[in-house]
From TrEMBL:
Start and end residues of each Dynein axonemal assembly factor 5 TPR repeats domain: 94-261
Species this protein is from: Collichthys lucidus
Protein name from the UniProt record: Radial spoke head 14-like protein
Coiled coil region boundaries: 269-296
UniProt xrefs under Pfam families: TPR_DNAAF5
Record's keyword annotation contains Coiled coil: yes
Keywords, sorted A to Z: Coiled coil
């Protein structure tokens, strides 16, 4: 009866604190590939326990996986990356990996012949960018990641992971992506059939449009018509990210004029007015947060557009919509942004 409960895909695990050392000892003995896989599977299970993660990173075991990156068995390489992915779900694991010598050999697996291994590597890299230090450490990989996007050989999940990593890195420093024609690349991806990829591409473009060079490239490459089209996307986060790019781009004169020519004001005003009812009805906390961002970004974009004579003239006619949010709004951030918009629109010299 007891034998039937043994999982053949897992290695036997010692009791308590002996479990992690025992499995790493087995890996160091270089058993056949099947046994290495079973040991790694058991380690992945253990890493869901924060205590075992702490034991792994403080006991010096993490560096021992480096040799497994070059294992001749693709499944072993993949499971090794899966182990790091589980480990980096914990902050202490992310910090330990960043402090180790594993990043260079791990990044070499971006060209691994196994698609499963490459996918696992990208999952690890995306997890690392949850820390600013992680995004900073991966800036040198930005040109390589963008090259992979241009080749369009990876599956959609991997493309989305690459875009997520690029986004986090670009919020840290947009220069590497901008220097590698990132705005043009992301503009091409904005119309992708996958909602997830459109969402991530718009977020990465928002990161690049924070700086002036990025804003100017968005205008020069005529991406604002595409972004205005995304305001009608069925996905809320795609809308939020598209408005975010517009919000940053309309802070320059060219961006203001292009957006006014595209008649974006009615759409932004609609977000500010009608979305209030939807915010109140929304039960999911994450969606409430995104709806708030949509309203805030729209208000800030309207405030910037009001600085242009044409925008101010049109917005004066719609002033009651904005005043309504200053009077009945409970959220202090939205109320303050609405007040700023009204102040700019009604300002007289």
């Amino acid at each position: 009866m007891a034998a039937s409960l043994i999982d053949p895909s897992r290695a036997p695990v010692a009791f308590g604190r002996r479990a992690v050392p025992q499995l790493f000892e087995e890996l160091q003995q270089r058993p056949e590939a099947a046994r290495r896989q079973r040991a790694l599977n058991s380690l992945c299970d253990l890493m869901h326990n924060p205590e075992r993660v702490y034991q792994t990173v403080t006991g010096g075991f993490l560096e021992q996986v480096k040799v497994l990156f070059q294992d001749e068995d693709a499944d072993v390489r993949t499971k090794t990356c899966d182990l790091l992915h589980v480990l980096t779900s914990h902050s202490v694991g992310r910090q330990a990996l960043l402090s180790s010598s594993l990043l260079p050999p791990l990044s070499q697996l971006l060209d691994d012949p196994s698609s499963s291994c490459r996918r696992s590597v990208h999952r690890v890299l995306t997890r690392l960018t949850l820390l600013p230090a992680g995004a900073d450490a991966l800036l040198t990989l930005v040109p390589k990641l963008m090259l992979k996007l241009r080749q369009e050989k990876e599956e959609e999940e991997v493309q989305a992971l690459i875009l997520s990593t690029l986004s986090s890195c670009s919020y840290q420093d947009p220069r590497p992506a901008l220097a590698n024609d990132g705005v043009s690349l992301l503009g091409h991806i904005l119309s992708h059939r996958s909602t997830n990829i459109r969402r991530e591409a718009a977020d990465a473009l928002m990161a690049l449009s924070v700086c002036r060079d990025g804003k100017e490239q968005v205008c020069e490459q005529n991406l604002l018509p595409v972004l205005v089209g995304l305001l009608q996307d069925e996905d809320l986060e795609v809308q939020v990210n598209a408005v975010g790019v517009i919000m940053f781009t309309v802070t320059i004169t060219t961006g203001k004029q292009q957006c006014l020519d595209l008649d974006v004001l009615p759409v932004l005003l609609d977000f500010v007015s009608k979305k209030k009812e939807e915010e109140e009805e929304e039960q999911d906390e994450e969606r409430r947060r995104r709806r708030k961002a949509l309203v805030l970004y729209s208000l800030r974009a309207l405030t910037a557009l009001a600085e242009a004579p044409g925008g101010r003239h049109l917005l004066l006619e719609q002033l009651p919509v904005l005043e309504a949010r200053t009077e009945s709004e409970e959220d202090q951030d939205i109320r303050r942004s609405a007040q700023d918009a009204v102040h700019v629109i009604t300002w007289t010299p």
